């Protein structure tokens, strides 16, 4: 384990796992997709990277999951076959909700690097006896997106290298 691995979110494979091919790692990352996931992993050519993982905030099936989130992130990934590693950097976008529909705009205070946000929202109301009772609870963590990606990469014998600054 490197000195700053905890800061960057770098994850290394078990030593007994042999590194697989670039195609296998790419397939493993794309294989993380699913209709039950609140994010999608897609081709990253429009962003000049190999792959992008982003939240399905504009998908009508997932509106309730995100609530009225003010920001949403995505993870950019570059596959480095020579080092057997996937380098990643996060971006954060500002979200404006108009009539219940999200509109994505780049935040004025753009964040890049490793973003590890967690949030908790709860709604409370008085019950029939006048006592305060929790009506709903929602938790959200950036780890819900990153953990499956990191597991796919390390399971293929590669290192997940989170970048805080520098070129992806």
Structural commentary:
The protein has 168 residues and is of the alpha+beta class. It has one domain (5-162). Helix content is 18%, strand content 39%. Strands 1, 2, 3, 4, 5, 6 and 9 form a 7-stranded mixed beta sheet that branches. The protein has a two-stranded antiparallel ribbon with strand order 7-8. The protein is elongated, with a radius of gyration of 18 Å. The two termini are 21 Å apart.
Any chance you could write out the topology, listing elements then pairs?
Layout: H1 5-8, H2 22-30, E1 39-43, E2 51-55, H3 63-66, E3 71-80, E4 85-98, E5 101-106, E6 112-113, E7 118-126, E8 132-141, H4 143-155, E9 159-162
pLDDT < 50 stretches: 106-110
Largest sheet: 7 strands, mixed
Average predicted confidence as pLDDT: 78
The radius of gyration over CA amounts to 18 Å
The H/E string reads HHEEHEEEEEEHE
Q: Given the structure, what is the number of helices?
A: 4
Binned, the helix content reads: 10-25%
- Portion in beta strands: 35-45%
The end-to-end distance, rounded to whole angstroms, is: 21 Å
The computed structural class is alpha+beta
Describe the global form. elongated
Number of E strands: 9
How many domains in all?
1
């Amino acid at each position: 384990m490197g000195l700053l691995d905890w800061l960057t979110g770098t994850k290394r494979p078990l030593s007994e796992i042999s590194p697989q091919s670039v195609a296998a790692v790419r397939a493993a990352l794309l294989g993380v997709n699913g209709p039950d996931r609140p994010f999608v992993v897609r081709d990253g050519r429009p962003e000049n990277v190999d792959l992008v993982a982003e939240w399905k905030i504009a998908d009508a099936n997932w509106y309730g999951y995100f609530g009225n989130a003010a920001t949403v992130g995505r993870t950019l990934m570059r596959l480095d076959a020579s080092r057997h590693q996937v380098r990643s950097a996060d971006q954060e976008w500002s979200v404006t909700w108009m009539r219940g529909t999200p509109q994505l705009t780049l935040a004025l205070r753009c964040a890049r690097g490793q973003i590890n946000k967690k949030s908790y929202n709860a709604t409370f109301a008085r019950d029939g006896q006048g006592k305060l009772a929790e009506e709903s609870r929602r938790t959200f963590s950036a780890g819900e997106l990153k953990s499956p990606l990191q597991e796919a990469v390390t399971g293929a014998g590669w290192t997940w290298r989170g970048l805080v600054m520098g070129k992806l």
